[in-house]
Amino acid sequence: MSPWLQVGATFLVGVLTATGALLGVRMNGRVGDRATEQREAQGRREEWSKRFYEILAYVVDESPRKRAAGLHLMSALAESDLAGPDELKLMGVLADRVLNPLLREIEQGAHTDVQVDDGSTQHA
Asked: How far is CA 22 from CA 17, 28, 33, 117, in A?
C-alpha cells in the first residue's frame, strides 16, 4: 500500500468528519433559533392577551370616561407590535359585535343628554 494512499484516506476522513460536524452545528443552531422564535411569539401573545383583557374591562364599564379611555387604548393595542394576525382577527370580531354597538349607544346618549350649569345632566 502506497504511503500517499494512506495520507489521502486520512485527509478524506478528516474532511468528512469536519463537514459532518459543521452540518450538525448548523442544523442544531436552526432548531434552537426556531425554538427561541416560538417562545418569543408565545410571550408576545400572552402579553397581548393580558393587556387585551385589562383594557376590555374599561371598554364595557358603565363610566363614559372609562369607556372612552378603554376604546382609545383598544385602538392603540390593535396597532401595537404585539398584535399578530390572530389577535387582529379577534379585534375585528370585537369591533363588529361589541365596540360598534357600544359606540352607537354612546353617540345616541350624547345626543340626548345636555350638561346643565350646576354639573348635572338632563335629557333633551
From this structure: 9, 10, 16, 79
- At residue 120, the 3 state secondary structure works out as coil
Residue 52: exposure state from Cβ atoms within 10 A (0-12, 13-18, ≥19): buried
**81-98 burial: b if 16+ Cβ within 10 Å, else e:** ebbeeebeebbeebeeee
- How many Cβ atoms from other residues are within 10 Å of residue 62's Cβ? 6
pLDDT category of residue 124 using cuts at 50, 70 and 90: very low
pTM (two decimals): 0.55
In this predicted model, what pLDDT tens digit does every residue of 53-95 receive, in sequence order? 999 899 888 888 898 888 889 888 888 888 888 888 888 888 8
C-alpha cell at 100: 360598534
